[in-house]
Amino acid sequence: MGDTYMAKPSEATRKWWIIDAEGKPLGRLATLAASILRGKMKPTYTPSVDAGDSVIIINADKVKLTGNKLKDKIFFTHSGYPGGAKYTPYEVMMKKNPRLVVETAVKGMLPHNRLGRKVIKRLFVYRGSTHPHDAQKPAYWQGGE
């Protein structure tokens, strides 16, 4: 019987991907970004190893929320102090800080442990269609959604 292949962190080959968020539903965009960040699209995927790629999301302000989520869904934050809860409708958040909306959606789909905290550092979200990562030679993601 063959042994199961376990990737090592030193063997990871990283690429950079650009995902255009224009017109894409927020949840599907976040799922795709989380999968690429974890490395689930690679044949060498190992759950306990950070072997994923870096992701640049552009046009975060043009991401789509389906149904009545724009009005009904609430963005929750807490300062850590008593009475420090803030409830903001997504309609306001999309105007004020669409980057935070996308980052939070992707972060929620990553593991909530050391690995997740390490992986989220390779996510770069930009409001418009420009980004400062041309030196990394990123490719546009053309794969399935």
Report what the structure shows.
The protein is an alpha/beta fold and 145 residues long. It has a domain of 95 residues: Ribosomal Protein L13p, Chain: A (Alpha-Beta Complex). It is 28% helix and 17% strand. It contains 5 helices and 6 strands. Strand 3 and strand 4 form a beta hairpin. It starts with 15 loop residues before the first strand and ends in a 5-residue tail after the last strand.
* Tally of contiguous helical segments: 5
Order of helices and strands: EHEHEEHHHEE
Strand content: 15-25%
CATH superfamily descriptor of the domain at 15-65 and 97-140 = Ribosomal protein L13
Produce a short descriptive summary:
This protein is of the alpha/beta class and 145 residues long. Helix content is 28%, strand content 17%.
Blueprint (SSEs and pairs):
Layout: E1 16-20, H1 26-38, E2 54-58, H2 69-72, E3 74-78, E4 85-89, H3 90-96, H4 98-107, H5 114-119, E5 123-125, E6 139-140
Parallel strand pairs: 1-2, 1-6, 2-5
Antiparallel strand pairs: 3-4
Protein traits:
145 residues; alpha/beta; Ribosomal Protein L13p, Chain: A; four-stranded parallel β-sheet; 5 helices; 6 strands; globular
